[in-house]
Amino acid sequence: MAKTILHKADTRGHADHGWLHSYQSFSFAGYYNPERMNFGALRVLNDDTVDPGMGFGKHPHDNMEIISIPLEGDLEHKDSMNNVAVIKNGDIQAMSAGTGIFHSEYNFDRTSEVKFLQIWIYPNKRNVEPRYDQVSLNLNDRHNKLQQVVSPNPDDAGVWIHQDAWFHLGKFDKGVSAEYAIKKEGNGVYAFVLSGDVIINGETLNSRDALGIWDTDQFTIEAGTDAEFLLIDVPMKF
Amino acid sequence: MEKIQILVVGRHPEILATVVRLVNSNPYWNATGCLSDEEAIAAFKELDFKVVLLGGGVDGTSESLLNTHFTTIKPDIKIVQHFGGGSGLLSAEIFEALK
């Protein structure tokens, strides 16, 4: 029997720094909720909106797989490995912080907000060599089907990370459904709705709601309205 | 009120300095940062630490050595692998360790 946990959008943490509005699915910075520490290897899911030209100055990370998914606008990235890049809607960025990395992230646009998801996954190996990866995806490849955007395999679709984790994005028309087979025994899926309504195991999720599901091999996801969503398939024990 | 003493061990000087600064931003906590196992072992004798954070670059051999040393001296010490490096996880990790 599948186990599930529902996280409604309005139960997330919220930080308002003026230039940054961050909705946090799990404990982060000033938001601490012992019941919301992680979902398996998924430790951070921040839903961030940054004002024009503003951003996160140079700061360090280590031992974390960090994935950024822009939803609207352009995000500028610079890091201590001399990577300089602008990621936009349709791109996905992964960074293995490993032994240590410094980076900054700014809204590249001077007139409009950037909205992006910042996702942190615990790595399956500590102290790896830091690395950075970015790919541009075809948005049509997620229309009424699941588009893989993260995997553990360098040769697979999307970016890769140091963890047995797979991410898929979907943009489904109302009434379209898909079966999702969990990628690895012991994994669970954190389904996060980006827009519209989706139904999983009879549970209706609205925009920015999430459902964690585990102890099952597969489940059905159906669009109750035109909807976009992200499926994060991660080890529950790591 | 006496501050809670937290020992932070990490191999990256700038990240260690950032973690120490962030821990010390909580007025009830005091962090001591150590780059080497030897420094950490020496520091452990000096203060009554409640939590040890093992940060980036601390390999399995060191982790095992430090775990054994610290738990022998103080069996109830909370030793936590710190992930993320001076980031948003720090406070929650410490709160969890102090529960």
Polypeptide structure, described:
- Chain A: Residues 149-234 form the Quercetin 2,3-dioxygenase C-terminal cupin domain.
- Chain A: Pfam families: Pirin, Pirin_C_2.
- Chain A: Its cofactor is Fe cation.
- Chain A: This is Pirin N-terminal domain-containing protein.
- Chain A: Residues 12-121 form the Pirin N-terminal domain.
- Chain A is an all-beta fold.
- Chain A contains no helices and 22 strands.
- In chain A, the strands form 4 sheets. Chain A has a 7-stranded mixed sheet with strand order 1-20-17-22-15-13-14, with no helix packed on it. A 7-stranded antiparallel sheet of chain A has the order 2-3-4-11-6-9-12, with no helix packed on it.
- The mean pLDDT of chain A is 96.
- The relative contact order of chain B is 0.22.
- A 4-stranded parallel sheet of chain B has the order 2-1-3-4.
- The two termini of chain B are 18 Å apart.
- With 99 residues, chain B is of the alpha/beta class.
- Chain B contains 4 helices and 4 strands.
- Chain B has helices at 13-24, 37-46, 60-73, 90-98, and strands at 4-9, 29-34, 49-54, 78-81.
- Chain B has one domain: 3-Layer(aba) Sandwich (Rossmann fold), CATH 3.40.50.
- In chain B, helix 3 (60-73) links the parallel strand 3 (49-54) and strand 4 (78-81).
- In chain B, helix 2 (37-46) runs parallel beside helix 3.
- The chains are: A mainly beta (238), B alpha/beta (99).
Please render the helix and strand layout as text.
The complex is a heterodimer of chains A (238) and B (99).
Chain A: E1 3-7, E2 13-16, E3 20-24, E4 42-50, E5 55-61, E6 65-72, E7 74-79, E8 84-88, E9 91-96, E10 101-107, E11 114-121, E12 131-136, E13 146-151, E14 159-160, E15 166-172, E16 177-181, E17 187-195, E18 198-200, E19 203-205, E20 210-214, E21 218-223, E22 227-235
Parallel strand pairs in A: 13-14
Antiparallel strand pairs in A: 1-20, 2-3, 3-4, 4-11, 5-10, 6-9, 6-11, 7-8, 7-10, 9-12, 13-15, 15-22, 16-21, 17-20, 17-22, 18-19, 18-21
Chain B: E1 4-9, H1 13-24, E2 29-34, H2 37-46, E3 49-54, H3 60-73, E4 78-81, H4 90-98
Parallel strand pairs in B: 1-2, 1-3, 3-4
Helix pairs in contact in B: 2-3
